[in-house]
Amino acid sequence: MADFDTLRIRAGYDSSEHNYSVNVPIYQTAAFDLGSTDRADRIWTLEDDSAIYSRVGNPTVAVLEQRITQLSGAYGALALSSGMAAISYTILALTEYGGNIVAANSLYGGSEDSFSHFFPRFGANIKFVKDRFDPAAYEKEIDENTRGIYIESISNPNAEIYDIEELAKIAHKHAIPLIVDNTVATPYLLDPISYGADIVIYSATKALGGHGNVIGGIIVDSGHFRYSKSKFPQFYEVSYKLKDIKGNRRSPADVDEISPFLVHLRAFYLEFIGAALSPFDAYLILQGLDTISERVSKQSQNAEKIARFLEESGFVSWVNYPTAKSAKNKELAEKYLTKGFGGILSFGFEGTDEELNDFIQHLNYYSYHVNIGDVRSLIVNCARTTHAEMDASHLKRAGIAENTVRISAGLESADDLIFDLRSAFSKVAGLREIKLSGADLNDLDEIANLEITNFSAEKAASKAAFEYRLKNFPEWFITAKYEGEIIGLINAAPTDRDYITDDVYLSGGYYNKDGKSLFVYGLEVHPDFRHKGIADKLIRTLINKAKEAGKTRIALTCSEKLIPFYQAHGLQYNGISKSVIGDEASYDMSIDLK
Amino acid sequence: MSYKFDTVKVRGGYNAKEHNNSVGVPVYATAAFDFDGFDHFNNIRAGAQLGFLYSRVGNPTVAALEARVAQLDGGTAALAFASGMAALSNTLLAVTGGKGRILSTKQIYGGTFDLENDVFPSIGIEFDLIDHDSSIEEWAALIKEDTKAIFVESISNPSARLLDIEALAELAHKNGIPLVVDNTFATPYLFRPFEHGADIIIYSATKALNGHGNAIGGIVVEGKPFNWTEEKFPQFYKKHWVARDLDNNPRSFIEAFPQFPFTALLRTKYLAYFGASLSPYDAQLILIGIETLSERVSKQVANARKIVKYLDSRSDVVTWISYPEHKDSKYKALAEKYFPKGTGTVLTFGFKGNDDQINKLINSIQLFGFQANVGDARSLLINSPKTTHGELTPEELEAAQIKPDTIRLSLGLEDAEDLIADLDQAFAKAFEE
User: Fold this and answer.
1) Which chain A positions have a beta carbon within 8 Å of B208's beta carbon?
2) Which one of B34, B83, B381 would you mutate to disrupt binding with A, by most A Cβ within 10 Å of its Cβ?
3) How far apart are CA A31 and CA A44, in angstroms?
4) Do A121 and B97 touch (CB under 8 A)?
5) Among A257, A399, A586, B418, which residue carries the largest CB count within 10 Å?
6) A101 vs A88, A145, A147, A182, CA distance in Å?
7) Which run of H or E residues covers position A78?
8) Are residues B314 and B376 both part of a single domain?
9) Which residues pair with B327 in a beta bridge?
10) Are residues A455 and A580 located together in one domain of the fold?
11) What mean pLDDT, rounded, does chain B reach?
């Protein structure tokens, strides 16, 4: 058989069967012509494996299934409309008639919640082990109704590695399959079947597809496991649905003795619970697979560099990555993951919830959203997002600390990714020294001095103007102080106006204490304290304060180069302002508050 | 302001301003969505702010489809799935909460029938199947203490049988259970089940709703919320951590989403964990199809009527015709009451020929497609007992009153004269020596 890098581009596709199209065509059709009644009979009795109806089989989807089968050195595969469909179908199909699954006690949040609270409603019970690192702990939980052992090959979010080979031996000793969720590793980094795994599951949404543009899942059967009649009677029940060409009823095992599991899944679960993958999405995943090696290898390198930076930075309380100092099972990581350790790492953030929020806001090259394996780097605070389904006791059991932040490294430059983290940490650390407070007339001199430091004489507000504002609406001054000294300021006035003209700078006629809008005169930070996130903090604090006070709108004018800054804080760009103070054009920005 | 049906079908559920002024609904081919800070995430999660987290449980393209279909049916909310079977199975699982009985008929779609026989009983859901034409008293007699819903098709597949939906809704409500209606064959253009008392509507969007046979999909629509009692439906009252409010108090689906508790339960638990999500690309195809729903279905109904007339003239080869508007149909009165615009685009007839001649008929057809689908813009013909209803044993076929000589037609948008000429030549070839 060809090598991995050849298979991921070519396996499962013969262009001569598809009008010589070099790329896999998207068979965007619900049904397929049956041709003759003879052919229809053959298809219905599975003698001919042509597609009938795209819910249960489609040529584009079939290429994806074949390609993954070959990449996994497996017997067969089934593609589904999401990774959760792959997980739920596997668990339910194996545990029919009251079976249970023994599982690692730290899994992806969706798995955790569904295993604990949802699948048991349908008779599938999950027994979580006490110590996921100890193979003996799994064996201890196995009873006569156990129908499989379930682990993640690289766990999410803590990137832990377990002993697949040992667990396979234990499973096989008890005549049950080992099920491995290989989503984080992908077949590029790890081939679980070569270490004895029997069923491999993927969320294709993640690094397998790699572009974050599709939701999909895949179940792979090695073909090595023998499902016994006593433990898995569902695979030996005859059904009229699986009749042969003579009309005799057959069981899934009669149809395919090597993988009755896949026959059963396709004939009953996909057919009737209907989580069919769209052919368009199958195409997107195939396109992603073309570059899986380059992507995952670069992502692993980036993750490793980031992990090393974090460990050395002193900014974080701990780092989880297979090569990190504190990682358990390091020797296993080296045994199983010879090409890289995956794109996922997590660390403990040191600071308050608010600081964590600031930290995430300061990042430029990490998207804040719930996914992994994307070509773009992602960051997320797990305990409150991806693992938000879990209450405190579950989080503790899974070893997920409240302050866990997960990074999924993308394909950006590692230098940029590290620089971005460093500057965000520095801003948070710097901000700790900065205290926000209000202002009153005692602060007038300091404020006027700051204004002169920051603005040209033409644009600076006069001391008299500040005096007027501090007398009339001091509650709309927010100052940033370093060692008691004012080094940053935002000040605003309540008004009924929607937009600002120059007269507001010159007179007080616009001012109405009960006005629903706020006009921001200015936002400034002393030159020695810029690029530390102080301005972000000031505008954010003002927006929150305005919301609490029931204001409905904030408006301001700014120079062209500051438009992106205000947009990042949710303000809309409304075009060139009528204000002409100073020598450059200024622009109207505003935000509607709800 | 509420727009009329034909306006909603091209505009409902979509506001171009929220999508960079794009006239067509964009395909949001993305797995995840950025958060603008933790508050943003938390607001979306708690339902305090409209937004999207992850496409498995919600996507803007899919949301436009859901809103449009909900409006077409006059519902409060809708949820799209990867297939009609996913819509159906997830609905029945959620209604029963994993335990209980469903009352339905012996004459429903083959796949559904098999679900009832083979899949659901193994996870604790039992079915009571009644003969389609039973009296309302006979229906009532089959409702047991743990019956959780009545489930019917508004027009049955393949034989196009009708039911007295209003009477069934009244019966269901008297017993504190919802009426679930599969409205796939009718589409909201021909029939709007909520106006007749139904509580939940299910579609295979693969069929006439989309109409182009190019996407597999399903939709569940919730009407004005059914009165789910805590005693019968505890799943709506259990407090869930995932449905917690902004202050982290766990809430039940009834508390958190009083306007559409069923859709919320389906989305948060069943779509999230059984994962039968519709692709945004396929959602867009279905949205495009819906834009011509009225024009397509009315033309298809007109074609069906012409074909019925033609088949009537061929008593030499046609033994019976099952179409509710047909002069021999026992559903004529129901057709007039519930289906003023027509009774659908599917009809069946009995072909006077042996197995060999049926095969010859099918193999001689040139224009009709021979495939397992309905509602397509192209006309389709199939011998149901051996194909779409091939999961059924001969005994089950008899119970379902599907005769072995049944031929099903799904009428498309071709010229009716061409369709008649095709049947004409195939009938002739079937009897050639």
Assistant:
1) none
2) B83
3) 14
4) yes
5) A586
6) 12, 9, 6, 17
7) strand A76-80
8) yes
9) none
10) yes
11) 91
Quick one: average pLDDT of B342-365?
93
pLDDT tens, position by position, A234-263: 999 998 889 888 888 999 999 999 999 999
Q: Which residue of chain B is at minimal alpha-carbon distance from A277?
A: B82
* pLDDT tens per residue, range B41-99: 878 877 777 788 888 889 999 999 999 999 999 999 999 999 999 999 999 999 998 88
Note whether A346 and A462 are same-domain residues: no
Range of the domain at B357: 294-430
Among A146-155, A326-335, B378-387, B409-418, name the most confident range. A146-155
In sequence order, what E strands does B108-262 have?
A: 125-130, 147-153, 179-182, 200-204, 218-222
CA distance to partner chain B, nearest, from residue A302 (Å): 21
Q: Which of B289, B323, B338 is the endpoint of a domain? A: B289
Contact A81 B45 (CB under 8 A): no
Q: For B190, how many CA atoms within 13 A lie in the half-sphere containing its CB?
A: 26
Q: What share of chain B is helix, strand, coil (3-state, %, to 5)?
A: 40, 15, 45
Domain that holds residue A580: 434-592
Average pLDDT over residues A144-150: 98
Closest residue in A to B211 (Cα) is A30
A455 plus A559 within the same structural domain: yes
Closest partner residue to B53 (CB to CB) among A85, A214, A370 is A370
Residues B251 and B343 in one domain: no
Q: How many domains, in total, are found in chain A?
A: 3
Report the distance separating Cα B222 and Cα B226, nearest Å: 9
A279 shares a domain with A156: yes
Interface probe with A: pick from B61, B242, B277, most Cβ of A within 10 Å:
B277
Q: Can you give the pLDDT at residue B1?
A: 47
Which residue is listed with tokens 């595969």? A77
Looking at the structure, do residues A285 and A335 belong to the same domain, yes or no? no
Q: Do A82 and B53 touch (CB under 8 A)?
A: no
CA-based nearest residue in chain A for residue B119: A268
Q: Check whether residue A135 and residue A178 sit in a common domain.
A: yes
* Nearest Cα residue in chain B from A388: B242
Q: Give the domain CATH number at B395.
A: 3.90.1150.10
* Tens digit of each residue's pLDDT (9 = 90 or more) over B190-208: 999 999 999 999 999 999 9
Q: Specify the CATH number for the domain of residue A37.
A: 3.40.640.10
Final residue belonging to a domain, choices B289, B316, B351: B289
- DSSP-derived 3-state class of residue A152: strand
Among A215, A234, A389, beta carbon nearest to B277: A215
